[in-house]
Amino acid sequence: xxxPARQFLxxxxxxxxxxxxxxxxxxxxxxxxxxxxxxxNGFRDGKYVGADLxxxxxxxxxxxxxxxxxxxxxxxxxxxxxxxENFSPEKWDESLAVNLSxxxxxxxxxxxxxxxxGWGRIxxxxxxxxxxxxxxxxxxxxxxTALIGLTRAVALEVVGTGVTCNAVCxxxxxxxxxxxxxEALMKSDGLSRPxxxxxxxxxxxxxxxxxxxxxxxxxxxxxxxxxxxEINGSIFPIDAGWGAG
Length: 245
Fold this sequence. Notes:
By secondary structure, the protein is an alpha/beta fold. Helix 2 (22-33) packs across helix 8 and helix 6 (176-189) crosses helix 7. The protein is globular and about 55 Å long. Helix 4 (89-117) links the parallel strand 4 (71-74) and strand 5 (120-125). Strands 3-2-1-4-5-6-7 form a 7-stranded parallel beta sheet, sandwiched between helices. Helices cover 44% and strands 13% of the residues.
């Protein structure tokens, strides 16, 4: 790839929530390569803003400190599991706050400047579980489904402004949590890495392999390029065919 192509977002500022590891870190890396100034939660070459996304006041301070935002990636997430009767109100409230309300707050705070400047990209990271249900994941399924609704509503509001809003729905992607599960299966069951992934993903991802975080990151960055300027309100699965079954 030529340097001009690599730097197609030169001069833009990207705010990526939940970017200390996994998909968020992969996205930060790719946006930096594209020329973006990065506002995140720990990427070494970017600006660190340690906001607690459960707190709207801290979100507002984060956005204010970042300055004008051109690209917003709402990636932060918490995952709690358990049947609904044992799913505590505290876990429910935290799921709503981090997975959904934080995206609402960052969008409402960054959108006016995007509109005024005539350009902006909002990418909400939903999930395969935003498109299908799952037992013992009531907080995660509810918030990831609602995030798709938020995406569609905002997309219609920004038509003709130079701003777009889309959602990406990954399947099981490489994260430290999933990595720990795979390694535990390898150790406890004496499995090879490929066999441990297949066992972990049985009945889910048809390929039986974890999706690379960088593959999802590249899709996110693509949605900020010139070729995607007419893509708005779209929901992009990247789940190795899981959602097709």
